[in-house]
Amino acid sequence: MKLYISVDMEGITGLVDQTFVDSTGLNYARGQKLMTDEVNHVIETAFQQGFKEIIVNDSHSKMNNLLIERLHPEAQLISGDVKPFSMVQGLDDTYTGAIFLGYHSRAGRKGVLSHTMIFGVRNMYINDAPVGELGFNAYVAGHYGVPLLMVAGDDGVAEEAEALIPGITTAVVKKQMSRTSALCLTPEKAGWLLREKTKLAIESRENVAPLTPPENPVLTIEFANYGQAEWAHLLPGTELDGEAPLVRYKAQDILEAYKAMIVMTELAMKAKFC
Q1: Which residues are catalytic?
Q2: SS (H, E, C) the chain
Q3: Are the C-beta atoms of residues 215 and 183 closer than 8 Å to each other?
Q4: Which of 217, 192, 32, 44 shows the shortest CA–CA distance to 131?
């Protein structure tokens, strides 16, 4: 059996504001350690449950946050940027299942450091249904027939996952109080929970179906300002709304939609607010 783990940072216990998740922040080094420790709990449990190969994809910011020298020695790490498929780089049909760790709720929703890819995105849609990083990444896994077995993070992302994927296991390591504060489990207690939930997710994996993406999906991104939408519209094949900061892209499949989303959000970050 082969397991894919995508690890973001905002959903790790104790990480509550920008100082923990920005490489220039005061608490970033602490955040790296806590992030690495959480993924090790999942890795060790998965090996104990019979997995023979585990690939971890660092999925936050520049995607070089995990401390490889502290990572479980039998796991392999995908690290660094640029990645054509970003948070799901390397995922394909050879995997038995996937786990998303350290995830957060989508833009516009309550949750610790909630957003979708960049802070300039207000909303993102696939065929008019709102989607965040969790949902988009789960669709890519579903494209390959890979079920998302577990999502770990705050209570906001757990609620989002349970609404999207019947039977999924969720691990809540902190409960939101505001966008930059939370009631957090201690790292030791979070580790116990992650081990328990990982074991449960693997044992009940037959109860979770892959999230099948729609055929010929239409991706729509609503940006915070029109300048961002103008930059995103530089991607050939996009349609720019004449009144609102909305950009649409009609894709052949979810993989093309995902690549379009990466390009559009990267371009949008070139726009300035003032």
Answers
A1: 115
A2: CEEEEEECCCCCCCCCCHHHHCCCCCCHHHHHHHHHHHHHHHHHHHHHCCCCEEEEEECCCCCCCCCHHHCCCCCEEECCCCCCCHHHCCCCCCCCEEEEEEECCCCCCCCCCCCECECCEEEEEECCEECCHHHHHHHHHHHCCCCEEEEEEEHHHHHHHHHHCCCCEEEEEEEEEECCEEEECCHHHHHHHHHHHHHHHHHCHHHCCCCCCCCCCEEEEEECCHHHHHHHCCCCCEEECCCCCEEEEECCCHHHHHHHHHHHHHHHCCCCCC
A3: no
A4: 217
Beta-bridge partners for 183: 175
Tell me the CATH number at 27.
3.40.50.10780
Q: What is the pLDDT of residues 166-181, one digit of tens each?
A: 999 999 999 999 999 9
* Max CA pair span of the chain: 55
pTM beyond 0.90: the answer is: yes
Q: Tell me if 92 sits within 8 A of 145, measured CB to CB.
A: no
* Residue 203 assigned ligand-binding role: no
Tens-place pLDDT, residues 10-51: 999 999 999 999 999 999 999 999 999 999 999 999 999 999
Q: Is residue 212 part of a domain?
A: no
Shared domain for 102 and 150, answered yes or no, is yes
Work out how many domains the chain is built from and give that number: 2
| Residue span of the structural domain in which 167 resides | 2-117+133-207
196 labelled ligand-binding: no
Out of 207, 229, 247, a domain closes at 207
Q: Is 233 annotated as a binding residue?
A: no
pLDDT given at position 274: 60
